[in-house]
Amino acid sequence: MINRIIILLAGLAVATPVFAQTADPASPPAAAQKQAQMIRAAVLRVDRPGLLPISRLDLPPQDLGFAGARLAIDDNATTGRFMGQEFEALEVAATPETAEGEMEKLLAQGIPFVVVLADDAMTLRLTDLAKDRAIVLNAGARGDDLRGKDCRFNVLHAAPSHAMLADGLAQFLMWKKWPRWFLVKGSHPEDENLAEAYRRAARKFGAEIVEERTFEDTGGARRTDSGHVQVQQQMPVFTQRAPDYDVMITADEAGIFAAYMPYQTWDARLVAGSAGLVPRSWHPAFEAWGGVQFQNRFEKLANRSMRDEDYQTWLALRMIGEAATRAQTADPDKLKEFMLSDRFEVAGFKGQKLTMRDWDHQLRQPILLATGALVASVSPQDQYLHQSSALDTLGIDRPETECKF
């Protein structure tokens, strides 16, 4: 199903998307009196069938990602009206079987920017399908290979990578002087990719992984087959006899076991990674740097809290809007060129400007470290310095990259 969002840019004059001031409706800006320029985009969300989340609180809303897109279109209208620009974002929900067909439809319509919410493999397939017909903005996939050996010139990554998330958590754990990690990973390929990011982070920041174990996914409905009684018996047995460690790091991208780990380990230890203290791109309790106003606007629009997918989709579309405003053009080719240039930056309510890495097209951004109820810290931590940007202490730096465009 496709919903069309169009915001006409006339009437108000504002300084930022957060604080709006009403202009005299009798005297619209000169640019608004001209023929409006349309900047078209689409959000393609690929819903992968699978088991329900462990917690019913994590059930995905029907407008996941799309709500973030609607807020971004509203914000793009606010910041772009001096240029007489209109912004449009089509919303397309697909399955793995229909995703490539839906992408072809968007490309046939001449949509120059496609925001993709999908897993690593599907994101790569859709990117290769688009080739030079569109810029793909990755708002979902976190795999480091997409920024490394499988990188593509026509994709920009608004979603943080596994390496960025792992490094953000590692910096905090090392600041806390908790260097001994017990790594527990799932049995799915995406779990191994995340586990490798934590191994790399341990080497990078001087932590020691005292042991690794794999939690095998044996199937089952989890929420009905693995009630609290079974979990209370199973998890302590699984985690016993581990060498002395400070923190258990869970690498559970598939969402099979990590949520069960807090308070169920054999030893009295903290849990981090995919549960416990979790590195995230966004958190609904975040309040700093205009976060309260930002989240209030989202909650008014969507009647729910913002999730990572909403934030990353919002950020991807805001990248387009910011490029249009700064480059003073609606031409897709010029917008692509500007977003890939060192002149590009975008505000993300994280306390500093977000910029693009030219070596792998990853958007630099701070990482929030959050529990279920609040944000405990924000990385990069102050003591980790870098010759060009502290944000480049998170993720794959230029000398380490395997990306070759």
From TrEMBL:
A Gene Ontology biological process term: amino acid transport
Domain Leucine-binding protein intervals: 67-370
Highest taxon above the source species: Bacteria
Family indicated by similarity: Belongs to the leucine-binding protein family.
Gene3D superfamilies: 3.40.50.2300
UniProt keyword terms in alphabetical order: Amino-acid transport, Signal, Transport
Protein known as: ABC transporter substrate binding protein (PQQ-dependent alcohol dehydrogenase system)
Segment forming the signal sequence: 1-20
